TrEMBL record:
This is Phosphatase PAP2 family protein. SMART domains: acidPPc. InterPro entries: PAP2/HPO. The keyword Transmembrane applies. The lineage of its organism: Bacteria, Bacillati, Bacillota, Bacilli, Lactobacillales. It comes from Limosilactobacillus pontis. It comes from the Bacteria.
Amino acid sequence: MARDYAAFYRRLSAPFRRHSQLVTALRVANRGVEVIMYGAYLVMLAWLVWLGFYQGWASVWPQLWRLVLIPGVGFVLLSLVRQRLNAPRPYEQWPISPLITREKTGDSFPSRHVFSATVIAMAAFWFDWHWGLPLLVLAFLLAIIRVVGGVHYPRDVVVGAVCGLVVGSLLFL
């Protein structure tokens, strides 16, 4: 961690603080990426359910279970690790005012938002790389947003993304 994270964060967030529209755009982007990612996951699940009705459940059940079980178990395990570590958020340790308003304390490491977005992007790759690539870019964007927004340290989002890549890659086994 930087010796003076507050100074680093002030430099990082300064362009946004100079233009209130950028703060609004950052918050909208944060929420928008969340909605897109969770929406994409629901579309993938719905697609498999539709295929089950159309093509028969025997060919779809294994895929549907993988798409639910692997990300779900990964999410639960990551949540347990986060809870156990209970790492403080940047605004708890440093005199900073985050751009993304958050009242929660602890559970910063690793980032569950970035983990989830990355796992969903990997699931989309499992379906079709045309879906996966843009969603992976959005997961990367979410990682940047969470750091610039002041709710995570860079290490939180990097580890969240790596964990998401590892768990998501299990879909391909």
